[in-house]
From TrEMBL:
InterPro entries, sorted: BCAA_transport (IPR051010), Leu-bd (IPR028081), Peripla_BP_I (IPR028082)
Name of the protein in question: Branched-chain amino acid ABC transporter substrate-binding protein
Record-linked CDD domains: PBP1_SBP-like
Family assignment from sequence similarity: Belongs to the leucine-binding protein family.
Length: 434
């Protein structure tokens, strides 16, 4: 793969795509000579302090597109077409992301992928709304795999934007359900990143905890700059001084890894309730200190315990055998497959037709080897999907056959919420194009 701004990477591999409901089995498609691949623009921070998260996303999307291409590509009336992933390094900046969006649309790319920052996602939605209104011949869709501010499918909801991750309120509600049943827990500390996602999480956590655990004392509540803190020792020291028994954080990337490391270094024994504590170095940093103390919430994890999940995870490990590349998210695979299914359902790659086909689309990923399923809610373009709350344990114990990143520690399911229980109300009032 070629690395660098707007450098393209053609990819190949195996799996199967389907239409509105994934019920058919894999089939072989004759490969002709397509006029051009279908290009997908990944606009993400691929360098800088949070670049590790961007590269981890890239690996997931490479694998997803490889699997589509290995079966012949996207089946369209004019013949099957391959997917091509094109990298645009935003360096984690809103301004650079907008510049990359212009570069992508100038090249005629019709699908944009982004997720690591709700602030960036919000700016992209606004810019793409204007672009698509001004230039209907060069419209593009925005598929979001990780930006979880509820406003993106609420007050700012857009016909051109689809979110495939569970948003903040969905993830938070799952964590609060676990917190609410821990009657021994009396004190908690809130800490997060100072941007739209972290600010919303802070407010919603207070509200949800007040409803579910009015007796629980919040002994600390603060935000820190996104991606700029190099030493979290002062924050960990304040958490310890507060007497908090638990910490609730939405931190991701190095902001989470460094926070967890600082907590370990000072012997902080609080339990961490996280959105992303099961990836990107956290288990390896914590080691034994994280056992029973780090919780995470996600749509899937390697130890969910089904035969489908075992096959799915084994296939990914075969493609990316390095332990440090162990960052697999089922939703990113489902996102690409749902895009393919919508294009095949619409019979075109035209953004408006594909968006209409995505609305209400249900996809069972199990026939595709994904071990995940979801339904794209038409009202707000928020994917409805199951969620798991899991806790860090030693690999090899009951329920933990797989570790994370070669650390010797993995995650075991504490709570499973089906899509109905994980759902949250929609406040979207979507304006659809004429």
């Amino acid at each position: 793969m070629t690395v660098g701004m707007a450098s393209s990477a053609s990819v190949t591999a195996s799996s199967t795509g389907q239409g509105a409901s994934a019920t058919s089995s894999a089939s072989s498609i004759p490969i002709g000579a397509p006029a051009a691949p279908i290009r997908l623009a990944l606009i993400e921070g691929l360098s800088g302090p949070l670049g590790n998260g961007g590269e981890a996303v890239f690996r997931n999307l490479v694998w997803a597109t490889e699997r589509v291409n290995a079966r012949g590509g996207v089946r369209l009336p004019g013949g099957a077409r391959r997917l091509e992933l094109v990298r645009f390094d935003s360096k984690g900046s809103v301004e650079e992301s907008l510049s990359m969006l212009r570069a992508a649309t100038d090249q005629g790319i019709q699908v944009v992928l982004q997720g690591n920052s709700s602030a960036v996602a919000g700016a992209l939605i606004a810019a793409l709304d204007k672009h698509n209104a001004r230039e209907p011949a060069r419209r593009a869709l925005f598929l979001n795999y990780a930006a979880v501010d509820p406003a993106l499918t609420g007050a700012q909801c857009s016909f051109w934007h689809f979110r495939f991750d569970a948003h903040t309120d969905m993830r938070l509600a799952a964590l609060v359900e676990v917190i609410a049943q821990d009657r021994a827990l009396k004190t908690i500390y809130l800490i997060g990143q100072d941007y739209s996602f972290g600010q919303h999480l802070r407010e919603q956590a207070r509200a949800m905890l007040a409803r579910r655990r009015p007796d629980l004392r919040i002994v600390g509540d603060e935000l820190h700059p996104l991606g700029r803190v190099k030493d979290f020792l002062p924050y960990a020291t304040k958490i310890r001084a507060s007497g908090a028994q638990a910490v609730l954080t939405g931190n991701w990337g190095n902001d989470l890894t460094l926070l967890i490391k600082a907590a370990k270094d000072i012997g902080l024994e609080a339990r961490f309730h996280t959105f992303y504590g099961n990836a990107l170095g956290v288990p390896g940093v914590l080691g034994e200190a994280g056992v029973d103390r780090v919780l995470a919430v996600a749509e899937w994890h390697p130890n969910v315990g089904t035969a489908d999940a075992e096959r799915f995870y084994a296939a990914f490990r075969q493609r990316f055998p390095k332990p440090e590349h162990d960052y697999l998210h089922a939703r990113m695979q489902l996102m690409v497959e749902m895009l393919v299914a919508a294009m095949e359902r619409a019979g075109t790659t035209a953004p408006r037709a594909v968006a209409t086909a995505l609305e209400g689309l249900k996809l069972d990923g199990r026939p595709l080897g994904i071990a995940h399923e979801g339904e794209m809610r038409a009202a707000d373009h928020q994917l409805q999907q199951p969620l798991y709350v899991s806790v860090m344990r030693r690999a090899g114990e009951a329920g933990v056959p797989h570790d994370n990143e070669g650390s010797g520690y993995g995650f075991r399911t504490l709570r499973y919420l089906d899509a109905t229980r994980a759902a949250q109300p929609s406040s979207c009032r979507m304006r659809r194009p004429d």
